[in-house]
UniProtKB/TrEMBL annotation:
Classification via InterPro entries: GP_PDE_dom, PLC-like_Pdiesterase_TIM-brl
SUPFAM superfamilies in the cross-refs: PLC-like phosphodiesterases (SSF51695)
The name this protein goes by in its record: Cytoplasmic glycerophosphodiester phosphodiesterase
Organism: Paenibacillus konkukensis
Domain of life from the UniProt record: Bacteria
Region (Disordered): 1-21
Sequence ranges assigned to domain GP-PDE in this UniProt record: 13-267
CDD domains per the UniProt record, alphabetical: GDPD_AtGDE_like
Length: 273
């Protein structure tokens, strides 16, 4: 999304619809992908693989939380279900009636839509898939430059960069492990990475810096990442106008958010003050 700051200079803010925007649209559905794209963001698809080798969009290891899978299948691992079985489940009705009929999509189905819009991008959050098969599918659809692969394991990011060099890779780091994980990654020269994501969890009772991770550490991390020619992304699990303005004032321009509509409205207010 392009916006103009109060001095008139253009700024590009990139944002990820974390977990497919599950607060506003049923997660990991084609509806969620389109929703984020139309708002100017980048949807995230969590990826798993079925028993017959089809890569699908599914966050959890079982279909219980997000689909109407029958009782006999609710607690069955996705890795033990066939794609035909998965296609029988409704992935929208548990969210709300207007989304009745949404299905769990295959990665190929999402890619076929993405390939029609070269300006659009997609995050792939690794859960449990064959990375070589994923890379082959990316190459088949010719969308490598539109993909951001993300995982907490730096080694998986290295593997994907080797298999599909045109794909951007992002390592996400929780705020509880960031002290040593970030340093470990930095010592490799951020090998094979394009983006580093840091999670921000609430800590304050009232007033002041909102997050458990110290502001000074985040500012230093932003400096290191920028100096290496990468981007820093933050995932604030909660935010208000003051905390988001503070992150933007620090120079952060890439976010992952659970409330896209609220985020977009907040960004617009920031650049139009």
């Amino acid at each position: 999304m392009m916006t103009a700051d109060r001095k008139g200079a253009n700024q590009k803010v990139h944002w990820q619809a974390h977990q497919s925007t599950n607060t506003e649209v049923p997660e990991n559905t084609l509806a969620a992908m389109r929703y984020a794209w139309e708002l100017g963001g980048i949807p995230e698809l969590d990826i798993r693989q079925t028993a017959d080798g089809v890569i699908i969009g599914m966050h959890d290891a079982t279909p219980k939380r997000t689909t109407d899978a029958p009782e006999s299948q609710r607690d069955r691992p996705i890795s033990e279900c066939t794609f035909d079985e998965v296609q029988q489940w409704d992935a929208g009705i548990k969210f709300s009636e207007p989304y009745r009929g949404e299905r769990v999509p295959s990665l190929a189905q999402i890619f076929s839509v993405l390939a029609q819009y070269p300006e659009r991008e997609l995050y792939l959050d690794f859960k449990e898939v064959d990375l070589e098969q994923m890379a082959l599918l990316i190459k088949e659809y010719g969308i490598g430059r539109q993909i951001i692969f993300c995982h907490c394991d730096h080694e998986n990011c290295k593997t994907v960069k080797r298999l599909a060099p045109e794909v951007r890779t992002m390592q996400w780091i929780s705020d509880q492990t960031v002290d040593f994980r970030f340093q470990e990654t930095r010592e490799t020269g951020f090998d094979s990475l394009d983006i580093v994501q840091i999670h921000l969890v609430d800590d304050r009772a009232d007033g002041g810096w909102r997050y458990r991770l110290q502001r000074e550490f985040l500012q230093e991390a932003l400096t290191h990442v920028n100096e290496a020619g990468l981007e820093l992304e933050v995932l604030p699990f909660h935010f208000d106008q003051d905390s988001m303005f503070e992150l933007l004032d620090m120079g952060i321009r890439r976010f992952a958010v659970d409330e896209p509509k609220v985020f977009v409205e907040t960004i617009d207010r920031y650049f139009n003050r």
